[in-house]
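Minutes, project check-in
Item: structure for the 92-residue chain
Input as provided by the requester:
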Amino acid sequence: MRSKNHKKEVPPIEVRARAIFCCIWFGTMPWRLYETKKHYRRSYFLHLKLNWRMPWVWLTSLKVDTEEIEFEQEVNPSWLYLFNSMCAGLRR
């Protein structure tokens, strides 16, 4: 969660849906399924806790931090890109 001074806006429904799906999928799956190098430094359970908290933010907040929206659009710009990333670690 960012500070309260950041700009907030209403994300498009498609971005919101992809963000919720990504938080649940990529937060629950072990990192080896979707990447070749672990992107987080802490334990799997802290990563899981963070990612399972974010869907509530996306579901219950009308406006979301602009940084969160930009991150989701950059990391998973489309459903096709997302589906190709889901098990990318296994294909390498």
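Outcome recorded: Residues 8-91 form one domain.
No further action items on this chain.
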